[in-house]
Structures are given as structure tokens and as C-alpha cells.
Amino acid sequence: MLAGESQVSSSLEDYLEAIYHTVEAKGAARAKDLVLRLGVHNSSVTQALRSLSEKKLVNYAPYDVITLTDSGERIALDVIKRHQTLSEFLEKVLGLPAPEADEGACRMEHAINAPILDRLVKFVEYFENCPVNDVMWDEDEGFFCGKSDKEKDGHSCGRDVCGHSLNIPLPVELTGQGDGNDTKAEE
Predict the structure, then answer these.
(1) CA 123, CA 138: separation in Å to the nearest integer?
(2) 143: which strand partners?
(3) Smallest Cα–Cα separation from 58: which of 46, 45, 47, 73?
(4) At residue 168, does pLDDT exceed 80?
């Protein structure tokens, strides 16, 4: 959420994003476009548009085109930036298929805050542009060093054994595997 903007629910953010994309694609947005794009009922769209209009985020009148106000457009662009950043991170860094990355980004875009988003943006930029980045995702192996020494210019991905991820044991709390003794040792 941008500083100074009124609180907008995740659902309403989705409507602002959908309006923005529809206007970009078709030149104008109507309620029926949102019904199709979001897969919701007419009554849901009407209720959301009234709420967004009350918050002064859209210009809405029944049976007319829907436009974003300046505030509505700022929020829509912020949501789009979060979505694109998360989607790129999930696809390019974590190696998820594009449809899965897009779906995950849709779910996470409403919860991520600005400092985390900024770090993700910088990490994705680094990941894509670093000339010595040789870490790639392989579905069977996980991360591995995927470039030859010649391509890497003598640099290494920093793994102890190129092609194998380091085996770091998880704490017992995360694995659910304990010794069966629930009492703590006295200190």
C-alpha cells in the first residue's frame, strides 16, 4: 500500500489491477469486462465498483466506462509492480513454470511490503545481470552451476561441489522428527 492511500482490500486491489489491464488492452473497461477477467458475478463487480468509487479510486456510473482516478492508477501500478516482481522471482530465480509463478504471484502480491519488494527487485536484477551468475534451477538436482569454466571466466558459483547443493540439516522443529522425548534437558 502506498503511503497516504486509503486502505484497500486485496479483492479491491485485484479490481484496480483488472481495470488497468483491461483499459490497456481494450482502451476502456466496462463491468462486463471485469466479470469475464476476474470470473466473478455481476453483483460482485457492482459492489466493488461502488466501494472503489466511494474511495475515489475509480470513476464509475452504471452502464458507462470505468476509469481509474490518479490515486486508483497509483495503487493499480503498485500492485502490478509487486505482481511482476514476484512472478519474475518465482520463475527466473526459483525456476517455477510461468503459469505457476503467475498464480503464486497473484496470491502473494497483496501481502508483500515495500522494503521486501525493493530487495526482491534488486535481487532479480542482480540475478539476471551478474556476469558471474552461474546458478540455475534444475528440477531434478535443484540449484547447480550450469556454465562451463570458460563461460564463467574462471569464477565459481561458490558451492563446495559444483552441481550439488549443500546439505544443511533442518532444525528438529521443522522436520517433525525428534527423539520421542518431549522434555527439555536441564541446563
Answers:
(1) 19
(2) 137
(3) 73
(4) no
